[in-house]
Write a structure and sequence with these properties.
Blueprint lengths: L1 H16 L3 E2 L5 E3 H8 L4 H6 L1 E4 L5 E4 L4 H9 L9 E10 L11 E10 L4 H17 L6 E7 L3 H17 L6 H9 L10 H8 L10 H16 L5 E2 L11 E9 L7 E7 L3 H4 L7 E7 H11 L10 E6 L1 H16 L4 E3 L5 H10 L4 E6 H6 L1 E6 L5 E5 L3 H5 L7
Parallel strand pairs: 1-5, 7-8, 12-13, 12-14
Antiparallel strand pairs: 2-4, 3-4, 5-6, 6-11, 7-9, 9-10, 10-11, 14-15, 15-16
The chain binds adenosine-5'-triphosphate and magnesium ion.
């Protein structure tokens, strides 16, 4: 959790600085929220959803991603009328996948959505926030930003026809899965990790020849904005997002440092989504980052995140001392110190326990010390100890207080 919180807190702080307010939407939704928006041929809908029937017979799904849920809530008016609507979220997502390093069935995402702005400026700001977060986490030099355009519907239709012609000419060399996708959603073939498919894709046509003037200008605008902000990116004409609702900008920050699961933060523009869900035509753009993968990348490349503050251990010896120790512990905690009580055993057992708790110092209270109104403060690193009057304990322990 400490590593997760490190990622979440950086994201939350930066998102607020960019004007994204935190929201929380339900962890489950009616299945249609996902099925209708993600597309019948997406991996998520075909193989990865955790879907159940509830007591009323309604079909519900544990959210596999959060864009559809946010859009559903925006349409429902739950977030008021603010436009554009800018939100940040952090929370669990569920996908029935083959569990492995960096790929979990319950994983966690941070994400942002900017709903109600159709301009390339919105895409640029959303990507800039992602890059800023990676920079703040200290991992920006470990990732590559890949970017592509999925253009508008007409451009995509023209491109799809050219791609299908190419793929059909090499159908024998395609994997079974890609042959299925070729029939149902050919753009998804570009996403394949199969070596045979990759060979066929190597000389597949790119979308560039089919871009409408508007789509090309939009993409240029985004690329220029990123360059103006000194955000390095590479064009990947094969980058498509796994979900049907994306158009124009698609992007992904990937790393080599995590092995096979290299995508850490990904997103794009989804102008058709809100309308697909029965709302008014509303443009949108956003991204989601995998918290486990980001935390692993931080650990892998920057080193361990700051440990919890070291506590003071209270070591009472005898019944009267134990009773007094309770009050002392509370008093010190109120003064802002982290305090670990030792609950049982001899002096050495309790000091061992203090050690396990990584205590920086121990306050040792024996019955005879109680009588004299003093306690022993032992620095557990140096072993040095002093006897202090109870009233002055706070002063003696101040240097062990956790930083701000
Ligand atoms: P992948 O290609 O790795 O399956 P994806 O395209 O399915 O990723 P997105 O839907 O774009 O992933 O989700 C955004 C981010 O969430 C990913 O970049 C990744 O960091 C993280 N993520 C997705 N699925 C998982 C998972 N099963 N376990 C851990 N993290 C995940
Ligand atoms: Mg996936």
């Amino acid at each position: 959790m400490r590593r997760h919180r490190h990622v979440i807190e950086h994201a939350r702080t930066l998102a607020a600085r960019y004007g994204f307010a935190e929201v929380a939407t339900p962890i489950f939704e009616f299945s249609d929220v996902f099925r209708r928006t993600l597309g019948d041929t997406s991996d998520i809908v075909t193989k990865e959803m955790y879907t159940f029937t509830d007591r009323s017979g309604a079909e519900i799904t544990l959210r596999p991603e959060n864009t559809a849920g946010v859009a559903r809530a925006v349409i429902g008016g739950n977030f008021g009328e603010r436009r554009p609507f800018k939100c940040f979220y952090a929370g669990p997502m569920f996908r029935y996948e083959r569990p492995q390093k960096g790929r979990l069935r319950q994983f966690h995402q941070i994400g942002v959505e900017l709903i109600g702005a159709a301009e390339p400026l919105a895409d640029i700001e959303v990507i800039a926030l992602g890059a800023h977060l990676l920079e703040a986490l200290g991992v920006l030099d470990q990732v590559t930003l890949e970017i592509n355009t999925l253009a508008d519907e007409a451009s995509r239709r023209a491109y799809r026809a050219a791609l299908v012609a190419h793929l059909e000419a090499h159908e024998d060399a395609l994997s079974e899965e890609s042959r299925q996708r070729l029939k149902r959603n050919p753009l998804r073939v570009l996403d394949s990790k199969d070596e045979g498919d990759k060979a066929v894709l190597a000389d597949a046509p790119a979308i560039d020849a089919h871009l409408s003037a508007e789509a090309a200008a939009f993409f240029d605008g985004v690329c220029q904005g990123l360059s103006a902000l000194d955000i390095a990116f590479t064009r990947n004409p094969r980058l498509v997002r796994g979900l049907d609702y994306y158009c124009h900008t698609a992007f992904e920050f990937t790393t080599e440092a995590l092995g096979a699961q290299g995508a850490v933060l990904a997103g794009g523009r989804y102008d058709g989504l809100v309308e697909t869900m029965g709302g008014p035509a509303t443009p949108g753009v956003g991204w989601a980052g995998g918290i486990e993968r980001l935390a692993a990348l931080v650990e892998e490349t920057v080193g361990a995140v700051a440990a919890a503050p070291r506590p003071i251990a209270i070591v009472p010896l005898g019944t009267r001392a134990e009773a007094a120790a309770l009050g002392l512990a509370q008093r010190l905690r109120r003064e802002g110190l982290a305090v670990e009580m030792t609950y049982r055993g001899s002096l050495s057992k309790r000091l061992k326990r203090a050690d396990q708790a990584r205590a920086a110092a121990a306050v040792i209270l024996g019955d005879d010390e109680m009588e004299r109104g003093v306690a022993t403060v032992r620095d557990l690193d140096s072993g040095a100890q002093v006897e202090a009057p109870e009233a002055e304990l706070g002063t003696h322990l101040a240097r062990y207080a956790p930083g701000p």
